[in-house]
Design a protein that fits this description.
Blueprint: E1 3-6, E2 26-29, E3 35-36, E4 49-52, E5 58-59, E6 72-75, E7 81-82, E8 95-98, E9 104-105, E10 118-121, E11 127-128, E12 141-144, E13 151-152, E14 165-167, H1 173-178
Parallel strand pairs: 1-2, 3-5, 4-6, 5-7, 7-9, 8-10, 9-11, 10-12, 11-13, 12-14
Length: 186
């Protein structure tokens, strides 16, 4: 099977439902799916792009873990949480935009995404989990659009490029530094 299309009429899929589809290169998740469950596309290493529509509200843990061919992901505006290890080891992924409605990113969510160069974090983010971007060795740009700094553990951005720069809204730099978003991290 090289292509998977989940029709708009499907509203839910089970945990690990499509895991290990090693020959799948194309994935179309229908607009009826309201959440991407745990491990749904775990180890589908040939998938290159994913669009998660606005009707989905969450991305479960390990949902796309080890999708090493994934170069592009579009996260719909309805998503409010990204689970732990959701995109872990997606080494071909180069950039990600976290929509404004997402309030939390789980532990290890983007860990070992070694090709990731930029992350754009929306205004709704309140919590970034442990090691969320650990070992994203090519990460050079983090943009946080929130006027008050999101909470995060000091290890959330550890083992990233020493060249990584963080951009925050005008007038909020000192608040971010006090909250730990400092030169020790970026």
């Amino acid at each position: 099977m090289t292509s998977v299309t989940i029709p708009d009429s499907v509203t839910s899929i089970g945990d690990y439902a499509f895991s290990y589809l090693r020959k799948c290169t194309s994935l179309n998740i229908g607009k009826g799916v309201t959440s991407i469950p745990t491990g749904a596309f775990y180890y589908c290493d040939k998938i290159t792009s994913v669009t998660i529509h606005d009707n989905a509200t969450s991305i479960g843990g390990s949902a796309f873990q080890y999708c090493t061919g994934l170069t592009s992901v579009t996260i719909g505006d309805g998503v409010t949480s990204i689970g732990g290890s959701a995109f872990r080891d997606c080494s071909a992924l180069t950039s990600v935009t976290i929509p404004d409605n997402v309030t939390s990113i789980g532990t290890w969510a983007f860990r070992d995404c070694s090709g990731l160069t930029s992350v754009d974090i929306g205004i709704g983010m309140t919590d970034i989990g442990n090691y969320a971007f650990y070992n994203c060795t090519q990460l050079t740009t983090v943009i946080s659009r929130r006027t008050s700094p999101p909470g995060f553990r000091s290890d959330a951005f550890s083992a990233i490029s020493s060249e990584c720069k963080c951009y925050v809204p005008i007038g909020t730099r000192s608040d971010y530094i006090v909250a730990g978003w400092s030169e020790g991290v970026f």
